[in-house]
Amino acid sequence: xxxxxxxxxxxxxxxxxxxxxxxxxxxxxxxxxxxxxxxxxxxxxxxxxxxxxxxxxxxxxxxxxxxxxxxxxxxxxxxxxxxxxxxxxxxxxxxxxxxxxxxxxxxxxxxxxxxxxxxxxxxxxxxxxxxxxxxxxxxxxxxxxxxxxxxxxxxxxxxxxxxxxxxxxxxxxxxxxxxxxxxxxxxxxxxxxxxxxxxxxxxxxxxxxxxxxxxxxxxxxxxxxxxxxxxxxxxxxxxxxxxxxxxxxxxxxxxxxxxxxxxxxxxxxxxxxxxxxxxxxxxxxxxxxxxxxxxxxxxxxxxxxxxxxxxxxxxxxxxxxxxxxxxxxxxxxxxxxxxxxxxxxxxxxxxxxxxxxxxxxxxxxxxxxxxxxxxxxxxxxxxxxxxxxxxxxxxxxxxxxxxxxxxxxxxxxxxxxxxxxxxxxxxxxxxxxxxxxxxxxxxxxxxxxxxxxxxxxxxxxxxxxxxxx
Length: 469
Prior knowledge:
Elements: E1 2-5, E2 10-13, E3 21-26, H1 41-55, E4 59-64, H2 82-90, H3 94-111, H4 127-139, E5 143-146, E6 149-152, H5 168-172, E7 189-194, E8 210-212, H6 216-226, E9 229-236, H7 240-253, E10 258-265, E11 268-270, E12 273-274, H8 285-291, H9 294-302, E13 310-312, H10 314-333, H11 348-359, H12 364-383, H13 387-402, H14 414-436, H15 440-452, E14 455-460, E15 463-468
Parallel strand pairs: 3-4, 3-9, 9-10, 11-13
Antiparallel strand pairs: 1-2, 5-6, 6-7, 7-8, 11-12, 14-15
């Protein structure tokens, strides 16, 4: 396997810290409002990465944090805590807000087929460790206390800027007039913040009552659950600076090797503009999941490479829905996987191509292209009477489409499928009645509405028949 590493700016072979085991840390949500579509891309991508490692025989520990304190509204060192501000707005306790949106986020992820992380640490549950790391950096003279707050001294850490590629001296230009009076340098960032009199979330510390800075939580929680050196750190491209740059400086400043590989996913845009909760420029994920098959959304997110910019549009989602219907229609026509004949799997070359794609920086679009090739060739084989090839293709889809990519191959199962099928039959009965009345406009409307749902209607002498796709 090779992955593109943001720190070294090149693809490099993967070699785990502990042979046979993989430790992954992914920056999770700040739980102060409902999740939007932009929140889904990273978890879906890293869910596939986790599944692929497991498929290849690794043990995996995936840690995703939850920020429930310390993330300020301007992503810097000033302003209100995002969660505390929401608590005031909704007239709730901060932890009520955190619980409400914690479950809203993870419920949405579950509907998208994202497995729960191995560990979900919360910032508020690790205040003691964050204070300890702050004290360590003070002892190493990489931080200083000022008026009850503690700041990391960027000028004392020569490597600052190595992850983002930013020149620390350039970061200083034009900012001196904006330096807080308690800071020595505009580039310095908070490890611990003094709580003002009306600040709700506060804890005792050696420097007085306050709360942790945003960046320090991830340096603490990643190393607590994965060790001082771990395999992969993931996050959105917009987190490289300042968040991940500060994480790296804090951790290495305290003597920790930290992450071997940094993997960043690119943004989902809406009409060419970055999704932003603060600007109201978002697609609400809960609403989207109610209107569309969650598996279509997941499939859509995987059709573009995680490092590429992807713009969301209804037309693109419909194209993904149509593509998934083609795969599912083939899958349903291939008979039973138990019917595969003895002998060598005829799809070994396809499996190798799929593996090659995911081993090359998790190239999910190329992996999906392999599945379309398999579906096309399996359909031809079944049409030619080679049902064994279809049965083996069904095994491949169970293993790779569903097991690795996490997209269910069946359009529906159990009671939900039976209810859907029954509703289609009712619509067809109404359509047959319209045709008997020679109300062809009504008949055509019902057929078109079914087509919008991926249902193809065939009129025969004995009545209407239907199939998916």
